[in-house]
Amino acid sequence: MQEEEGGVRPLSTVLKTMAVLDVLAASPRGMKLPEVAAAMELSRPTAYQRLLTLIEAGWVEQDQEMRYRLSMHACRIAASALEQANLGTRVQPVLEMLVHRVKETASLAVLDRGLPCIVSRVESESVLRAEQKIGTTMSLEGSASGRILTAFADEPTLGRLRESGEPLASGEILSEARENGYALSSGYTQSGVTAIAAPIFDFQGRCTSTISLVMPETRFDLETFREPLLEAARTITKMQQGER
After folding, report:
1. 123 backbone dihedrals φ, ψ, rounded to 5°
2. DSSP structure string for 73-124
3. Which of 163, 164, 213, 230 has the most CB atoms less than 10 A away?
4. What pLDDT does residue 1 have?
5. Which 3 state secondary structure label does DSSP give 79?
6. What is the mean pLDDT of the segment spanning 9-20?
7. Domains of the chain, CATH where assigned
């Protein structure tokens, strides 16, 4: 861990306690104390102390089955983070309009700790669709969003991605994504599923997020989905840059 200016270091106890939130976020139904302790390789007393700290802080709650889960406070903070990044309620209508137009599921993803993470999603009404929940992280190498976030990353971000050890898509794939303005992936989330993603840029011209469509490969047609997706990406980029 590197020291900041003046020799000030992050509080390791806080970092260890906050790490519990990541473990709970990965569980769809919450977790019991032994499960948390096992997942974090902690003794039960230590795991309980960290959970109790997060309960007192309002981040975690316990249900009637004695499972620990994220509280709605976490949802409120997440919503505020999206609003501050100009990716909150103003973006939702764009996703909804895109889904209405193409009849497929649309998602918004950002780079979170070195991996693409879905932060907003509007499902299609189709019975046959790809299921990915908000909070799902994806591969930099294999997902369409990961390829876009890598292809359009600025040099500092690209350097961090390379240093992370996560596999990256080939130079040929990344060059093609930059040239086309979109990236494709097939069979990454599950066999028979295709995704197409496009970059969204902030007011500094940095690619900070992606918008994507995902559907069964039997319904994929590039000519049908490309322009509506790129148009939605341009609309959100304008929002990010304060143009509307």
Report:
1. -80, 145
2. HHHHHHHHHHHHTT-STTTHHHHHHHHHHH-SEEEEEEEETTEEEEEEEE--
3. 213
4. 46
5. helix
6. 91
7. 5-70 (1.10.10.10), 83-240 (3.30.450.40)
